[in-house]
Design a protein that fits this description.
InterPro entries: 6-hairpin_glycosidase_sf, 6hp_glycosidase-like_sf. The chain is of the alpha+beta class and 731 residues long. Helices cover 30% and strands 21% of the residues. The protein contains 16 helices and 31 strands. The strands form eight sheets. Strands 6-7-8-9-19-15-14-13-17 form a nine-stranded antiparallel beta sheet, with no helix packed on it. A five-stranded antiparallel beta sheet has the order 5-4-10-18-16, with no helix packed on it. Strands 20-28-29-30 form a four-stranded antiparallel beta sheet. α6 packs across α16 (644-658), α7 (363-375) packs parallel to α9 and α7 runs parallel beside α16. The protein is globular, with a radius of gyration of 27 Å.
Length: 731
């Protein structure tokens, strides 16, 4: 509102702050902004909003958890609040208490179903997004109790039986519990199913507990009621949990009375309960006989509405025609299969980089995830996701997922070009204008090239990929801008020659501008490596500058600037064999480590394999990676605990190990680990789309001899030049 500028609001804010003994927020913000380059966007409002929500929960956690450590809490709390555990974090003056040590969970679900329940490392099941959870315990009549979240060790795995199934095994002194969590289809509706199998050497009870918490902390429950048949809960009058048999005993507690765990052996039975502060806990007890297995199936309907697209055999259709991997390495094989299922789960229409913390849309993550979908043959799913892009384009041509990210337009145009290359299709008419507008936006957004500054002609300072640091003139944005203009040139060439030539000339001029800016960096730094921006030293943010080599391939594989940047990162920014991002993420990053591996693979540097193996070793037992990994605990320390961009990068890494485009030729098998050739089982990959057509590759190892490599191609226009380049084998 224009009249606001006439109010002395800055003066009023300053005076109010001083009156109550606070720091002057206006001066403080000015100081904060002085550490970043001037930008039209400080921090994207979407990130600020997400951060407020995140820390609001952390504030609630700080008021509830530390004063009630006799409650049974989720695994991350049991570890992070235990002074004897490596995951322990002192709380002291921390205003909020959040999960910084074990951000790990695994999504389960069905293709094209938006609901994605998550399972934590000890089997805690959270059926609804950001909701309450279900836990299971074993209580012996002699008082012993198996509480999985307090077990120092447990076994967890993911199986693929008509979809993902997370299996968790816990044991303690003769008590054992196995939980199997999955999503099934019943009458066209998704249902979260939890199958429990418990055993005890003595008689006791299998306990199903309703918990007002999840892998992020507190999640309120105000009331719960047990059905008259004692075989179902109604939670907050809107969600239902069904048991396969009636509960023999049932207890409920509120915040003032403490956790229901304290009351499991009370004689009084309650059928319902409520709590004004939202901390209801409930426990349904089912009898167990000594030495016998006790089973219970728990069902939670995820939606009241039937969806015609949901069928019991949805996974067969969703995986039809994908590029299959057959290799002797069980770890690589499992991680590949897990990543395929992960990408299918997180692309119901839009694509999401995670089921929980990141269950929202960004163009950046979407470009990489859609690229993986395309490269493993899930073309229809990728195309459907691309069709969601145009309505997010503003009238000025900006593809906006959040303000201040100047890489988005380049990424959209690049992935659209990759779609048409990999499918061999011409640009659809409805995409022609969005491509023109998107490319024009890149050109108009660039700064004047007459500035007497190193950032002359670059894209403005922005937040960009937020793990690169504060607002700056990031080369990451510029490389994507160049890639976007080159993509527009190729896409429009058959339909609009004039626009194609215009954008092609713009791409070349933009590239020359960036080269000049990088030359000033080389002179300043006394080495060719590319910093994150013209004003930065070489630091961890330089990881973003690798975009010139992967995935855009804007430079040769042996470009000195690219390789020197990699050498710096390997020397200064790697911990335990993986890239350690010390800004924002403050953890080991699987997907960024694989970016470095991709550059080394292109360059023919066998160190790529060490990095890929390190990433495989960082995966959870269910085959997932959190966005950033705690160097000490090995658990997640930042972002989503099931990070789909990381899964996408694993698929892209495996694909490029078998086949990648390099200019006007295909390179086969350049990343196949030499150890695979020392055994006799066949190795296969495909059918995999490439820009020349779809190809399937087979390798017959000959231990002690030269392997046989064969392929079958379905080419767009004829077989391209092909180079077979097995590591440590003569081409």
């Amino acid at each position: 509102m224009s009249w606001m500028k006439w109010l002395p609001w800055r003066y009023l804010v300053k005076r109010m702050a001083h009156r109550h003994g606070f720091l002057d927020p206006i001066a403080l913000l000015a100081k904060l902004h002085s550490f970043a380059q001037p930008s039209e966007v400080g921090e994207p409002i979407e990130l600020l909003r997400a951060g407020v929500v995140f820390h609001a929960r952390g504030l609630i956690n700080s008021r509830v958890i530390q004063h009630n450590l006799d409650w049974v809490w989720p695994y991350w709390i049991e570890r992070q609040f235990d002074p004897g555990d490596v995951a322990f974090i002192p709380r002291a003056f921390s205003i909020t208490h959040i999960n910084l040590s074990n951000r790990n969970w695994t999504a389960i679900g069905q293709p094209d179903v938006a609901e994605l329940p998550v399972v934590d490392p000890r089997g805690l099941l959270t059926p609804f997004y950001d909701g309450w959870s279900l836990d299971a315990w074993v209580l012996a009549d002699d008082g012993r109790c198996l509480l999985p979240s307090r077990c120092k060790t447990a076994r967890q795995r993911q199986a693929f039986e008509d979809g993902p199934v997370v299996v968790t095994d816990s044991e303690l002194g003769g008590l054992s519990l196995t939980s199997r969590s999955r999503v099934v289809v019943e009458n066209g509706k998704p249902v979260c199913e939890l199958l429990l199998r418990a055993r005890s050497g003595t008689s006791g009870s299998l306990v199903l507990s309703l918990r007002p918490a999840n892998p992020e902390g507190i999640s309120f429950i105000n009331r719960v009621s047990l059905s008259g048949q004692r075989d179902a809960w109604t939670v907050d009058r809107k969600q239902t949990v069904f048991f396969s048999r009636p509960a023999e005993r049932h207890h409920v507690s509120d915040y003032r009375q403490g956790d229901v765990r304290i009351h499991l052996q009370d004689n009084q039975d309650q059928s319902q309960g409520k709590c004004d502060v939202g901390m209801v806990t409930a426990a349904a007890l089912f009898p167990m006989r000594a030495g016998e297995v006790s089973e219970l199936t728990v069902r939670v309907p995820l939606s009241d509405e039937s969806a015609p697209a949901i069928r019991p055999d949805s996974w067969l259709g969703a995986l039809e025609g994908y590029a299959q991997l057959e290799c002797p390495d069980e770890s690589w094989q499992f991680l590949y299969d897990a990543a395929i299922h992960s990408l299918v789960l997180h692309s119901p229409e839009d694509v999401y980089p995670g089921p929980y913390t990141y269950k929202r849309f960004w163009f950046r993550d979407a470009a990489f995830i859609i690229h993986a979908l395309l490269c493993v043959g899930l073309t229809d799913r990728a195309e459907r996701a691309l069709h969601q892009f145009p309505h997010r384009q503003l009238k000025n041509g900006y593809f906006r997922s959040q303000e201040g990210e100047w890489d988005a337009n380049g990424e959209v145009l690049w992935i659209l070009r990759r779609f048409h290359e990999l499918t061999g299709r011409a640009l659809h008419r409805r995409w022609q204008e969005p491509v023109r507008k998107g490319a024009r936006w890149i050109q108009k957004k660039r700064l004047s090239d007459t500035l007497d500054k190193p950032h002359a002609g670059l894209l403005p300072a922005g937040f960009s990929a937020e793990h690169l640091g504060p607002n700056d003139y990031y080369y990451w944005d510029d490389f994507w801008g160049i890639a976007g203009l080159k993509a527009a040139e190729e896409l429009l060439r058959p339909v609009d020659r004039e626009a194609s030539e215009h954008f092609g000339a713009g791409a070349r001029e933009f590239a020359q501008t960036v080269d000049r800016s990088l030359a000033t960096c080389a002179e300043r730094l006394k080495r060719p490596g590319m910093p994150a921006s013209p004003y930065r030293r070489l630091d961890a943010g330089a990881i973003g500058s690798l975009a010139i080599g992967y995935p855009t391939q804007l430079c040769r594989p042996d470009d000195p600037r690219l390789l020197d940047c990699v050498e710096f990162l390997l020397e200064k920014c790697f911990v335990k064999g993986a890239f350690y991002q010390d800004m924002i993420h403050s953890g080991l990053n699987a997907y960024l480590t694989l970016h470095v591996a991709q550059v080394l693979l292109r360059a023919g540097d066998l160190r790529y394999l060490e990095l890929v193996d390190a990433v495989a070793g960082l995966a959870s037992p269910t085959g997932q990676w959190p966005e950033a990994i705690h160097p000490g605990t090995g658990g997640g320390c930042m972002g989503d605990g099931h990070h789909v961009w990381a899964s996408a990068e694993w698929l892209l890494m495996v694909r490029n190990c078998f086949v990648r485009e390099e200019g006007d030729r295909l390179v086969f098998c350049a990343g196949v680990p030499p150890r695979w050739l020392e055994q006799g089982k066949p190795i296969r990959f495909g059918p995999a789309p490439t820009s020349f057509g779809t190809v399937s590759i087979a390798i017959e190892p000959r231990p002690g001899g030269t392997p046989d490599v064969t392929w079958r191609g379905n080419w767009h226009r004829g077989e391209p030049d092909i180079e077979v380049k097995l590591p440590e084998v003569r081409p």
